[in-house]
Amino acid sequence: MQKPTFKFKYGFQRNMALLNLYTLHEELQAKTSSSGWRVVGLSGATGGGKTTLANQLLASLPTTTLYLTQDEYILPDHSNAHLKAPEPLKGYNKDSLASIDMTKMIADIKQILATDGRDINFVDYDEIHNRSKIIGSALNIPRPPFIGHKEKSHLSSVLLLDGFLLFNHPEVPQFCDLLYFITLTKEQCLERRKMRVFTNVSMNSEQYFELCAWPQYEQHFTQMCNTVNNIHFINGASQPHITYERVFKDIMHMLGGDTC
What pLDDT sits at residue 129? Predict the structure, then answer.
């Protein structure tokens, strides 16, 4: 990464913010390189297939692979951090970064990247399917083991990050070597949500989708596009095996491995 030059017209605070981002990127590159991790970010519309893709990658990547999802950091319902849902909805807007403990998630990511994959405590990736156990689990004390699998390999270890608001936090894209965002139309997203059962009952309604979930998605999508570069967009209507093959090949190419 070329060291940025800052023009005075941006002002001191703007210059310092850019310099801090550059410094963070350099530090993360050094830590990732020394500990042997490569990071892949998977984001996109709710119901887009992020977890399905992550599960396929966990089952097939020929190297130590760890999975971290924003769902593990969702705050409990009694938290005062949640935003209120728009009227006439009752309850909270759970489609906001305010409902996710990103400070804890960032700390866990940094801990992983600073640690050799062989020294991390894993639980089998089958746990990825048990959403009720995953929601908010990283906030428990002690923290449960990370989800993933270990494998002896000359390839770098892979950290898979999953979350519908993953790239809306300014630090997360800085960690990622590859960034993917799965898109859906409003109609496709609604149909897929109807097939899911959310742990919070109020989020199951079509009214919540119309007044909260979809407007929040559009807002966060615009913000992400304006602030994050090098995102690979994937049509969520594509067959899952096509999406998987594309991402798997990209990762293997990044790792320098054979995809045949």
Answer: 66
